[in-house]
Amino acid sequence: MAHVRDIMDIYVGNLPYSVGDDELNQLFASHGSVTSARVIIDRMSGRSKGFGFVEMPDNSEAEKAIDALNGTDSDGRALRVNESQPKPRDNRGGGGGGGGGGGRW
Fold this sequence. Notes:
Elements: E1 8-13, H1 21-29, E2 36-41, E3 48-56, H2 59-69, E4 73-74, E5 77-78, E6 80-83
Antiparallel strand pairs: 1-3, 1-6, 2-3, 4-5
């Protein structure tokens, strides 16, 4: 392992749209201490986007929670649970941009 972090951030995908922050917290609290649990909400509709993040301060408990919950059924949906990956940096360089379309004569 490269380095030890104090808090593990866990991605939880394929959540039923009915699950809120409290339910997500309860789901993980049965496996250890939870620092925070948040379901991501769409700004336009105010509805859940079907995924969220949980922070657990103990990496060992977090890994056990991931192993225990990944693939489990929640309202007919198989949860996807894994350590979240850092967001890629958006350096606005992105994709092509085109240019030089034929020129003017």
